[in-house]
Each structure stands twice: as C-alpha cells, then as structure tokens.
Design goal:
This protein is an alpha+beta fold and about 475 residues long. Helix content is about 45%, strand content about 20%. The protein has nine helices and twelve strands. The strands form three sheets. The chain has a six-stranded mixed β-sheet. A hairpin with a 5-residue loop joins β4 and β5. The protein is rod-shaped. The N and C termini lie far apart (about 105 Å).
C-alpha cells in the first residue's frame, strides 16, 4: 500500500500532513448540492405576487381616479346648474329694472308734455291780460308776474312738441312691450334647457377630458346617466300684470324720488286786507299739479294755475272769484282694437261769464266747484283742462317677473345623482347638491332685504348632500 493511499485512508494530507475533511463535512456538502434550484422557485413566487399586487394597485388607482373624477364632475355639474339659475334670476332682475327705467322715462315725458301744454295756455292768458300780469305782480310779488309773462317766449302753440313727446313715449313703450318682454319670455322658456345643457357640458368636460378610463364627447360614450333627485327651480317664477299693487307701489315709490314728478301744490296770499267786510280773507294764487298712476296702470297728469280774487255781495257774503291762468290735462288710455287714434285733443272755447255771475254758475256745479268760500282747488281751470284734455293711447305698464308667493324666503336647491358604467360589472356613482340664494350687500341701515327679482344679487354655492334624497 502506497503512502498516498494510506494518507487518504486515514484522512491525512500528503502535502501538509494535517487531517482532511471529516465524513460530517462531506455530508453537508452533499446536502447543499441537493438543495440547488430551490431559491429560484421562491423568487418566481415572490415576483408573481409583486406583479399581481402591482396590477391590483393599478386597477385600484384607476378606480379611485375614476371615482374622484366623477365626484369632481358631479360637484361641478350641480354648481353649474345652480349658477345658471342664479344668472337667470339676475337677468330677470335686470329686465325688471330696465322696464322700471323705461316707465320712469315715460312718466317724465308725460309730465313734460303736460307742462308744455300748460305753458301754452299760460301764454295765451298772459297775452289776453286775463288776468293782467301787473295785477299778479302787485298782489303776490314780481317773481310771479315774471313767471307769468315768460310763458310768452315759447309761443302760443305746443302741437309740434306734443307730437315729439308722443313719439318718444312710443319708443319707450316698444322697448317695454316688445324687446324686454321678448327677453323675459325667452328666459322663462329656455331656463330649464340651459341648466340641462350646463350639467351635460360639465360632466363631459370633467369626466371625458380628465384621464378617465372611458373617453368620449357624449354622455353615452362616457357611460354616464343623470338623475335629478331634487329640483326646486320649477314653478319658481311667474309673470304678473304691471297694474297690480306690487309693481304700482314700486313704480310710484321710484317716481316719488323726483321732485319734478311729485305734487306741485302751492297757495300764495297777499299781505294786506282787501275788503273790510272780509278781514280774514285775502286774494289767492293757487298752483296745482300732480302725476297719478291709476289702478289700471294708466297715467294722469294735470296742471293748473288760477287767480282767486276776493269778492263780496249781500247774498252769499265773501267768496273767491276764480280767474284761470293756465291749465293742462294729459292721460293715457288703453287703445283696444285701434278704435281710438294715438293722439286726441278736444279744444273748446272758454265760457263767457258776462251773461252769468260766477257765483251763480258755481252754485249749479257739484263737488269742489261749489266751494268758492274756503276751497283749495282750481275747479274752473280743471274744468277747462278736462274739456281740452290730451289723450295718448297706451298698452299700459306691461308684465313683470317675480317669485311666486310662498317662495320668496327659501333658497332654490337642486340635487343630482350621476352613475358611470365603466364595464359590464363595474359601475360607480356620485351625488352632489347646490343652491341658489339671495345675498345682497349689507345696507347702511343694517336692514335685511327680502329676496326678490328687483335686485340682481342671486348667487350659487355647493351644499352638503341632502339626506332625504
């Protein structure tokens, strides 16, 4: 047996002479060699789990993105619907205010036309010296005589100016009854359609163009369906006649802010005793003028100025003898079926009191004309004015828009539910609600204003989803 064989048998290295690997070491080497390839299987399992987790995370992310996109689109759609409602109500407010502006201009034209007619009559009486301007100045001061005679500078006729005022009045009336009324009708008719279009546009813009799983330019392509769960915009606004009390009171209050359109009632008296038998009475110069809006929505404007000379006789005692100096009356009336011309005027001559005493004539009259002792009116001048009145045909005040009764103090809410079908078995949905509310600026007096369609302060905001949906 060789030395190398012996060394190998006893586990001794023939180079170093030390011990070689034991049998235990050899068994470990054999076990490790048998385990080769087991880590690859575990790695494959882990890789598969990672890929599966990544796919699930991607799908979950897409679903979260789709849900978020739908929530955002639903909020935008609900807010847009409320905003369109606010804009519609503000438009009605602007139309109402524009109509008030035109009708205020019409009231000014009526007052100016009446004043023009009154000036012409005043000029006629001044030229006739009935009564003389010098007498008026002596009793009541030079300012009254100057005003009396200054009417002569405008001439004796007002026909041309009357037609010019009438034409301007008709232009305002066409704006009220044709242009503004047409705008109001279109808004009432198309308001709901505009809200629907706004909802559709917002959904398509925020879902179809925001990286959603589905692409498209229509609701059908995006798998969207809309349900209106609450709509308080219906039966909200109605039209009312301008002759009703609400509109008349509003317009009358607006007219009252202009001094030219308010009542012009003045009485001037001389300072000294005229007749010893009537020590407490004086000559009077009575100026009367007013602009009225009737219950039927028609205007009445009248002007008069009379000198009331103090007289006395044994039969009735002290009384005032009226001398009309100027008068005018203009009123509008409904021109049905074109039966009346647009402008009518009935001219009559002044009555002649040379054959009948004034006090006897007054006793045969009724109403204010009988009171010649302590009256405040100009009955004779008003009689002349009615006999020579000018009438303008008119369509009236027209209609206006206002909130229905019972809906004034409540915000207008709208709620929607939107569903999106991503696949055959994958559907998501979202809800949103918004409201239109009245938010005027704080007044200097700190008074709260009631919601109405006369002021354009309607706004929109999102609100929490309604529990009763």
């Amino acid at each position: 047996m060789s030395l190398a064989t012996k060394h190998a048998q006893y586990g001794v290295s023939h180079r170093t002479g030390g011990p070689r690997e034991t049998l235990h070491d050899l068994s470990q080497v054999e076990w490790v060699s048998q385990q080769k390839g087991q880590a690859l299987l575990l790695g494959l399992v882990l890789c598969g789990a990672g890929v599966l987790a990544w796919v699930l995370m991607l799908e979950l992310g897409e679903r979260v993105h789709d849900q978020s996109s739908l929530h955002r689109a639903t909020d935008a759609a609900a807010y847009s619907a409320a905003l369109m409602q606010a804009r519609s109500m503000n438009l009605h407010a602007y139309v109402n205010r524009a109509q008030l502006g035109h009708q205020l201009g019409m009231a000014h034209l009526i007052a100016v036309a009446t004043a023009s007619q009154y000036r012409a009559k005043l000029a006629t009486q001044a030229a006739r010296r009935n009564p003389p301007a010098s007498l008026i100045g002596a009793f009541f001061g030079p300012q009254h005589s100057i005003a009396y005679t200054s009417a002569l500078s405008g001439g004796m006729s007002e026909t041309l100016s009357q037609h010019a005022f009438r034409d301007a009045y008709l232009r305002h009336e066409r704006q009220v009854h044709q242009v503004l009324d047409r705008v109001r009708q279109l808004q009432l008719r198309d308001a709901e359609q505009q809200r629907q279009q706004s909802i559709h546009h917002m959904l398509i813009a925020n879902v179809g163009q925001s990286g959603s799983a589905l692409k498209g330019d229509t609701l059908k392509q995006l798998g969207l369906s809309i349900t209106i769960t609450l709509d308080e915009t219906k039966d909200l606004i109605d039209q009312y006649s301008g002759a009703d009390s609400v509109w008349r009171d509003f317009l009358t209050g607006l007219v009252g802010q202009y001094g030219f359109l308010t009542e012009r009632n003045r009485t001037y008296r001389n300072l000294w005793i005229v007749n010893p038998r009537c020590p407490l009475k004086r000559h009077e110069l009575r100026r009367k003028g007013r602009l009225l809006l009737g219950q039927d929505g028609q205007w009445v404007s009248e002007e008069s100025l009379s000198f009331h000379a103090l007289r006395h006789n044994k039969i009735i005692g002290c009384y005032h003898r009226e001398y009309p100096m100027g008068w005018a009356l203009l009123n509008t009336h409904t021109n049905e079926k074109g039966a009346q011309p647009a402008l009518t005027q009935n001219l009559v001559t002044m009555p002649d009191f040379s054959r009948q005493a004034f006090w006897r004539w007054s006793r045969a009259q009724s109403g204010a004309a009988r009171n010649i002792f302590s009256g405040r009116h100009n009955p004779l001048a008003q009689r002349y004015a009615h006999s020579a009145s000018v009438k303008w045909s008119s369509k009236g005040l027209g209609r206006y828009a206002q909130l229905k009764k019972g809906r004034e103090r409540q915000p207008v809410r709208i709620a929607i539910k939107v569903s999106q079908r991503l696949s055959a078995d994958n559907r998501i949905q979202s809800r949103a609600a918004a409201q239109t509310y009245f938010s005027p600026p704080t007044s200097s007096r700190g008074q709260a204003k009631n919601p109405s369609l006369f002021e354009p302060f309607w706004r929109a905001t999102l609100i929490p989803n309604l529990s009763h949906e």
